[in-house]
Design a protein that fits this description.
alpha/beta, about 40% helix, 3-stranded parallel beta sheet, globular
Length: about 100
């Protein structure tokens, strides 16, 4: 089964805003620590989600990239690492960045 979780990037200009949007879209547990390490940990667990592919779609990541290129690079790296390392359970992550 495939589940799509979309975040719209138009108003996401800080790393905190992007992490909060990802946490909301993927229904992260309340213990999510709102930092890059915690983001990686949650993205490579996904045990609270149903089995299947969970596709995180980040539409228009350009506002964060323009406002804070370092934060964009860090979050993009965590997303790439999480996909490459994979989740340990029956739920797994794919990421799609959609540029306008």
């Amino acid at each position: 089964m495939r589940f799509e979780h979309e975040i719209g990037g138009d108003a996401l200009e800080t790393s905190d805003a992007v992490m909060a949007a990802i946490a909301s879209a993927l229904k992260f547990p309340s213990y999510f620590g709102h930092n890059l390490d915690a983001l990686y940990d949650c993205l490579t667990d996904l045990s609270w989600l149903p089995a299947g592919e969970h596709v995180l779609i980040w539409s228009n990541p350009a506002p964060l990239r323009a406002a804070d290129a370092t934060a964009y690079d860090a979050i993009a790296a965590v997303l790439a690492d999480a996909v490459a390392d994979g989740a340990g359970g029956d739920a797994y992550l794919s990421v799609l960045l959609q540029a306008d």
